[in-house]
Amino acid sequence: MERDIRILFSDTFLVGIMFANFCIDLFVTAATFSNLISSSYFLMIAPGSNFLTAMVAAFQSGRDVWREKYIKDLASYLFTLPVPRRLFAASRVAGGVARSVIATFPGTLVISYLYGILFSPKLVDAFVIVGLFSLGIVGLSMAVSAFASSIEVFATVRSAIQLYLSFLSTIFYPASLFPVIVQPIVETNPMTWAMNAFRSLSGQGSSLGPIAILVAPSLAFALLGIGCYLWYARL
Amino acid sequence: MISFEKAGKRFGTLDAVKDFTLEIRDQEILGLLGPNGAGKTTLMLMMGTVYRPTSGAISVNGLDVVKHPNDVRKLIGIAFQDPRVDGILGAFDVLNWHLKMTTTLGKEERAERVEQVLRAVDLWDARKKRTWLMSGGMRKKVEDCKVLAQRPSIAVFDEPTAFLDVPSRLLMWKMIRELRDQGSTVIVATNMMDEAERLSERVAIVNRGKLVAIDSPEKLKSTTKGGEVLELTVGVGQQFPRELLAEFSEVQDVTQTENKVSVYLTSGRLLLPKIVETLTNRGVKIDSVHLKEVTLEDVFLNYTGQSLD
Ligand SMILES: Nc1ncnc2c1ncn2[C@@H]1O[C@H](COP(=O)(O)OP(=O)(O)OP(=O)(O)O)[C@@H](O)[C@H]1O
Ligand SMILES: [Mg+2]
Fold first, then answer.
1. Beta strand pairing call for B154-158 and B185-190
2. Helix, coil or strand: residue A121
3. Which residue of A has its CA nearest to B77?
4. CATH number of the domain to which B239 belongs
5. CA distance A43 to chain B (A)
6. Is the complex ipTM more than 0.90?
7. Which of A80, A91, A231 is most worth mutating to test chain B (most B CB atoms within 10 A of its CB)?
8. Which atom of ligand 1 lies at the shortest distance from residue B38's CA?
9. Which terminus, N or C, of chain A has the lesser number of Cβ atoms within 10 Å?
10. Nearest Cβ partner of A80 from B78, B86, B87?
11. By 3-state DSSP, what share of chain A in percent is helix, strand and coil, each rounded to 5?
12. B234: which strand partners?
């Protein structure tokens, strides 16, 4: 247990430095958006830009795994360390989630402030949503990287997934604005679920329902990621 | 004790290591000597649980590397041929992290050990410099220091002194010996004769994935074809009558590369005039003659098939 946390932290530390700039990015985006566009629209899309940042940060995990594998060949070094691989895989996922939660930390706070939930228990829910969303994406990106033979393949698959998650979701428009045919796709998009969950935070009443919808797919993707990583890291 | 039993590793259609059988004793320094592509790195990575042997078995202290990889990983420390360090970290952090992952040392003990090795290799002042900004030799030292600081019971160094300057090489050898004196079994892969000869107690010569000889450097030299070499340069394009020399019982072997002929023999001093006489009588034009003791290089060339026999 202690070791798990230690590894999580060392892993986060190892590559986490790269994410300082994400935070800056987010502040700038947030500031620009709120000045340019009316604030009600900002309220609607703000969680989306936050999720996009989370997505990019989370995908970084897969990219790291890929880089270790081919560019620096750090992988063979990491695999000689006496850490059980399952623990290692799980802590990489945890590290990835921690990183993307950290990367979106200011964004989440800003949006929570705008939603007026900064000092309510719902703030925890906000972080849980970002965390769950990141968990799924980290898992997905690790799964992709385990199979990608070149950075081009990885980048292409990543872009495809990112396009699907961002444009075929309710980040920018409500589902009703989409053509009828793609509406089911939009409705079954994890990003849509995450957006719904987040937006529900601003209203009254419980957001447990929308959050619960996120749990299963996120866990499934995380397990998929761990599984693929273990497959790739097998002796 | 580490034992390889007919271990093999196939990459596609290439046998990088084949039918490799060897026992490595506790607390010895074993040199793995072989030309580029011989399979040295592959051997070490199989032992280090990175590659799975495709045939045979490898065990470390009785633990099979495939069945108990995690137990084996606890025993081994590997300094890779090309440094595997995270570029954005400085030497101190790289080593500290390595110790954190491989040992049970507390924070202060770790810092102490890291300081000790970094000072020894003169990198203490550069401890915060990002490793990707370091020179090749500095980075290599950091890689070696990982294992020196870790003090694993089995320490593996893959060409530890590649890129190092002469004083640093001598120092690195000294530190590797000290590591052994503290109880580690040391395996060093190299393609440098002086490193194999001066550092290791036993040398295993590997060629094309196979073990071709293993013994102490002295024994290897003395048992190789008599212990002396007579090097002759003959006129270009001349047929060299090997069979003539084979009549001398002291001559063990004759090899030829272009117009350079090596005659492996015993008591060369006595034989030299006779050989020269026989050859000149036969009309062979001799440009130069040089008699010397067998070096590890001769042994190496002999075993790795550079000779014509
Ligand atoms: N991952 C791999 N996939 C395919 N072939 C490989 C792989 N690793 C090594 N080889 C091949 O196996 C052979 C042995 O390589 P190895 O790296 O073990 O040699 P080496 O003795 O360490 O050589 P050097 O002195 O150049 O370091 C080479 O022909 C190499 O191309
Ligand atoms: Mg090698």
1. parallel
2. coil
3. A80
4. 3.30.70.260
5. 38
6. no
7. A80
8. 21
9. N
10. B78
11. 80, 0, 20
12. B286
Which one, of B302, B155, B212, lies nearest residue B22 by Cα?
Answer: B212
Spatial separation of the C-alpha atoms in residues A4 and B232, rounded to whole Å: 66
- Considering A173-177, A210-214, A216-220, the range whose residues carry the highest mean pLDDT is A216-220
Q: Which residue did the predictor score with more confidence, A53 or A159?
A: A159
Do A80 and B52 make contact, defined as CB atoms within 8 angstroms?
Answer: no
Residue B279, C-beta contacts closer than 8 angstroms, at least 6 positions apart: B232, B241, B244, B286
- Compute the nearest-CA separation of B76 from chain A (Å): 8
Q: Give me the residue from B66, B76, B89 closest to A235, CB to CB.
A: B66
Task: From the CA of B12, give the closest atom in ligand 1.
Answer: 4
Q: What is the pLDDT of residue B117?
A: 94
Contacts of A197 (CB under 8 A, 6+ apart): A129, A207, A210, A211, A213, A214
Coil, strand or helix at B200: coil
Alpha helices by DSSP H, chain B:
40-47, 69-75, 91-102, 107-120, 136-150, 166-181, 193-199, 217-223, 242-246, 268-281, 296-303
With respect to residue B196, please indicate whether it lies within any of the assigned structural domains: yes
Residues in chain B: 309
Residues B62 and B58: their CA atoms lie apart, in Å, by 9
Residues making up chain A, counted from first to last: 235
pLDDT, tens only, A59-110? 877 777 777 777 667 788 888 888 788 887 888 888 788 877 877 777 788 7
Residue B49 to residue A74, Cβ atoms within 8 A: no
Contact: B84, A7; criterion CB under 8 Å: no
CB contact under 8 A, B101 and A82: yes
**B76/A80 Cβ within 8 A:** yes
| CATH at B12 | 3.40.50.300
Number of domains in chain A: 1
* Cα separation values, B280 from B65, B93, B234, B277, B293, Å: 60, 68, 11, 5, 24
Which of A17, A72, A81 is nearest residue B102 as measured by Cβ atoms? A81
Judged by DSSP in three states, B189 sits in strand
Which tokens in the block code for residue B33? 């000597």
Residues of chain A contacting residue B88, judged by C-beta atoms under 8 Å apart: 17-18
Question: Cβ of A235 and B49 within 8 Å?
Answer: yes
CA–CA separation, B23 and B2 (whole Å): 6
Closest atom of ligand 1 to CA, residue B209: 14
Residue B301 maps to a domain: no
Q: Which residues of B touch A80 (CB under 8 A)?
A: 48-50, 73, 76, 78
The whole-model pTM stands at: 0.79
Residue A158 near residue A141, CB atoms below 8 Å:
yes
- Whether B283 and B177 share a structural domain: no
Ligand 1 surroundings by CB, under 6 angstroms = B 11, 14, 16, 34, 36-42, 81, 191
Range of the domain at A15: 2-233
**Distance (Å) from the alpha carbon of B154 to chain A's nearest alpha carbon:** 13
Comparison of pLDDT for B269 and A44, the residue scoring more: B269
